[in-house]
Amino acid sequence: MVERDKSHDDELVRWANYVKENPEKWKAKLKPFLDSQIIIARRFRKENLTY
Amino acid sequence: MEKFENSNRIVSDRTILDDFVEQFCSIINKHCNYIVCSGFVAISHGRARGTEDIDMIVDKLNMEEFLRLHRDLINGGFVCIQSEYPEKIFDDYLNRGISVRYVWKDDGFFPPEMEIKFPKDELDEEQIGGRTILPLTKLNIYFASIESNIAFKEEYLGSQKDIEDAKHLRIIYKDKFSEAKVNKIKEEIIKYRKNG
């Protein structure tokens, strides 16, 4: 397994600590990221895939 | 679900995945015990990564019980990607240890997906037995325990993504979970999954 560089791990820890210390704030910051993946995936598949 | 794309008004912090998983679990809960496990556990605790599917293990049902569950899922607005025939879903997939995927009914099979399967062994049954609601998620659904999720990700799944998920959960639950339980589950994973 290729190890990712230290900055990646630093960011993982920084964000996890933010979530832990800001239980009422983190969700609003993450929601656009989480929702956009679903919305874009649905749009792409509807436009490009046939079932 | 165009309603998500056309709305300019944010009414809450709930995500599409939150709505999907709670709708689905509310139906499952009427029929059997279940756990949500793996990636969505980390994501619902704030892990910043994507997923299109949510993993669920449900009690092993017989055909009649599954037919009733499937009918409720259909009436609740879900469809199964693998087949529209519940007998086929049961015989060709679930009863053979193969998972199936349900999505919201639409003009195709689009994410998010719920991947459900029956317990593979005693280890999965123990996970269901130890199911818990995790208040930090603010979701009214049952999860596998934090110890179980950490153990599976570190000892069994083991990809970069899984190791990072486990690290995230370890930070969120620092001093609030049992390392001894994690190690005990890891020993069972070795017994049942690696040496079994």
Write up this protein:
The complex is a heterodimer of chains A (51) and B (196). Chain A is mostly helical and 51 residues long. Chain A is built from two helices and no strands. Chain A has helices at 6-21, 26-48. Chain A is flat. With 196 residues, chain B is an alpha+beta fold. Chain B has a single domain, classed as Beta Polymerase, domain 2 (2-Layer Sandwich). Chain B is 47% helix and 12% strand. Chain B has nine helices and five strands. Chain B has helices spanning 2-6, 16-28, 39-43, 63-75, 86-93, 122-129, 146-157, 160-172, 179-194, and strands at 34-37, 53-58, 78-80, 100-104, 113-117. In chain B, strands 1-2-5-4-3 form a five-stranded mixed sheet, sandwiched between helices. In chain B, strand 4 (100-104) and strand 5 form a beta hairpin. In chain B, helix 4 crosses helix 5. Chains A and B meet through helix 1 and helix 2 of A and helix 8 of B.
Straight-line N-to-C gap of chain A: 35 Å
Taken in chain order, the helices and strands of chain A follow as: HH
CATH class of chain B: Alpha Beta
Query: Fraction of residues of chain B in helices?
Result: 40-55%
* Amount of helix of chain A: over 70%
Q: What is the CATH-assigned architecture of chain B?
A: 2-Layer Sandwich
Radius of gyration of chain A: 16 Å
Which range does the strand content of chain B fall in?
Answer: 5-15%
> Got a strand count of chain B?
5
Rounded Rg of chain B: 17 Å
CATH topology of chain B: Beta Polymerase, domain 2
Domains of chain B (count)? 1
Let me know the largest β-sheet of chain A.
none
Low-confidence stretches of chain B: none
Structural class of chain B: alpha+beta
